[in-house]
Design brief:
The protein is mainly alpha-helical. Helix content is 66%, strand content 0%. It has one domain.
Amino acid sequence: MSSSLIVSILFISAFLSGLSVFFVKRDNTNLLKLILSFSGAYLFSITVLHLIPHVYISQNTSPEIIGLYILGGFLFQLVLEQFSQGIEHGHIHHSAHSAFPLGIMISLCLHAFLEGMPLAAGHQAELVFGIAIHHVPAAFALGSLLLNTRLSKTKITTFLLLFAVMTPLGFLTSKGISEGEIGNITQYFDKIMAIVIGIFLHISTTILFESGSADHHKFNRKKMIAVILGVLVSLANFLFDGHDHHHHGPGHDHHHHNHHHHNHHEH
């Protein structure tokens, strides 16, 4: 996938879903919950199938250290959540106060920035798709929250724009890092990836636990279907990829079937 395509997909998905709060009736939370369940399952599967194996293959960092960074990312997301009040997994808290949620805005942007980072490594197509879907409820929640603060439409749009720009920015920054343009920070790349994995694990599991019915333990058929779909979509990528670690360009039109020989003896 080309950089400009990645940037535009990430930007447009977040920006448009944020803007949609101006047009959508607010009571449509059921659909949002299903999108959430789908994106949670998808993120979780991708993390387990692609990101974790990939980061452990790396020669630069020992597995124990990577494990520590994954844990660190997980805990980091726990802390971020204290400030963002869970908005990155689509939580909408209806509060009457009209103070601007600065903590939420900052932690969301930081979160989105970090999410863009692993896109410079392999597995772009799946990840871009996953993050784009995952930003739909997050941007919608942010938009709703900003609407509650009774800011002007231009201000709300500006903040949504800021949020939408963060992930592409993270992607471009880490692309610069991995290509050695921004100093030699390649040795930190695995660690950044590991932190992002921790964040993904936290978000995706939280989404899966929370996005059900009001009674968390009730079996919810629609949610189950959404989760299974999320897993299946990530598996489809997995199968088509032939699990190859080549950094090839366009990830969609041709699924290199000729690269299968080089890493199947490992499995």
